[in-house]
Amino acid sequence: MHRSTNLQKARRFRFLRAVFWLGLTAFGGPQMHLPYFKKNLVDKLRFLSHDELIEINAFCSALPGPSTTQTITTIGLKLGGNRLAILTLLLWSIPGAIAMTAFAISPKFLGGNELQFMGPTVLGFMVYGAFSMYKWIQPSKLHYGIFWLSGIIGFIIQSPWIFPISMLLTGLAGARWGTAATQKPALGKKAIKWKNMALFVGIFISVGITGIVLSKFEKESKWLKPVVLFENTYRMSSLSLGGGHVLAAMTLEQYVHHTNRLTTNELNAGIGLIQAAPGPNFNLATYANAVTMKNSGFSTESQILGAVLGMIAVFLPGTLFVFFAFPIWENIKSIGFLQRSIPALFALSVGFILTAVLTIGNDVILQWLNETYNHKLLHLGVFAFTLISLISGKIPSPFIVLAALLMGWIFP
Questions:
Q1: Count of other CB atoms within 10 angstroms of residue 144
Q2: Residue 241: what pLDDT?
Q3: For an engineered disulfide with 160, which of 59, 165, 220, 246 has Cβ 3.0 to 4.6 Å away?
């Protein structure tokens, strides 16, 4: 028994070490995270199988919140319960949160020149991510059709509602016409922890009421602002079905248009910088709250407090959803129509990576057209270097990002 316990502790330590390394090196946003998870947690360390990773990602894609963060948190939950899941979330998200906080409180840390090649670098990451995950789609006309259709429609119709609507339609299509999968026998009923959902609802209602009341006095007493920001961030995360792009759209509406806490340029800079930071795109909330505190005249310490509150508020709802919903999923996942829906929902998630490729690619091309001839060649070179480096696997992702920043500094 003692030997078995030590082996289990050693395995969990190796898992957390791998998660921390992913938190430091997983650049490129959610479209790159699953390939990183597969390479490190499936192929290299064998903590779970390829099919289990796809199944967990499909489950998390149906929940509000950061789907890849919920995916790696769920893996921790599956391997070691709530405690390991919480440690997994922290080790995965904190490195990127620290980077975004540094960007927020030190606006001159990176100037415009250093970031000028970030567009083609990010595009290279996304193209590689889409290509890698396309190979994971279960071969069928339905699944390939979902991939291409969702990717193109998502690019044409720039709306936060497109993701939940697509999820519903794809789930129904997969249940009706999807390839029948071998049903997995249930290994015994999992206890559903209703207290997690009660905690989520309780926090949602209490911070909502508190935020609505205190927002009336926000201008009179600036010390109420951290509480209001926590409420705003918690609410946006709770409703963001569709990942980082939906959160960015909500932040634009809530922080720029509705309250004028940020300028459009400040938010756009944060969206760009999140691509230069490792880990989850939901760390945009860390940046947005820190900049809001700075624009309100708070000290550096208070700006850091705003960043910490933003990080807690943006990841807490999705984590509570996972703790509540995963036991339910474990109990019902062997049902036939759900098994048929999983490959279709995965094809949809890869399709929205295609949307990201087309969206970022369109922006990069528009920027490229306005460059001088020499800079056009440099942009193409950076894109090619990024893609070739990722395909070869010989240059770690952080060094690719650092090379792009160095290029921006050398060629103003």
A1: 15
A2: 65
A3: 246
Q: Which two tokens stand for residue 397?
A: 């992702």
Give the residue ranges of DSSP H helices in 26-161.
30-37, 50-61, 67-105, 118-134, 141-156
Pair of tokens at residue 368: 């490229």
Predicted confidence band of residue 266 (pLDDT cuts 50, 70, 90)? confident
List the Cα angle 50/86/202 in 5-degree steps: 115
Q: At what angle do helices 67-105 and 2-25 cross, to 10 degrees?
A: 50
**Would the pTM count as exceeding 0.85?**
no
- Token pair, residue 155, equals 């690019």
pLDDT above 70 for 254: yes
Residue that the structure tokens 């100037």 belong to? 111
d(CA 400, CA 394): 11
Q: Is 369 exposed, middle or buried (0-12, 13-18, 19+ CB in 10 A)?
A: exposed
Find the mean pLDDT for residues 312-337: 82
Contact 344, 142 (CB under 8 A): yes
For 238, the token pair is 């709770």
Hey, what's the torsion of the CAs at 46, 52, 57, 59, to 10 degrees?
A: -150
Question: Which of 196-200, 230-234, 241-245 is predicted most confidently?
Answer: 230-234
Name the nearest CA neighbour of 273 among 395, 98, 68: 98
Mean pLDDT of the chain: 81
19 neighbors 92 (Cβ within 8 angstroms): yes
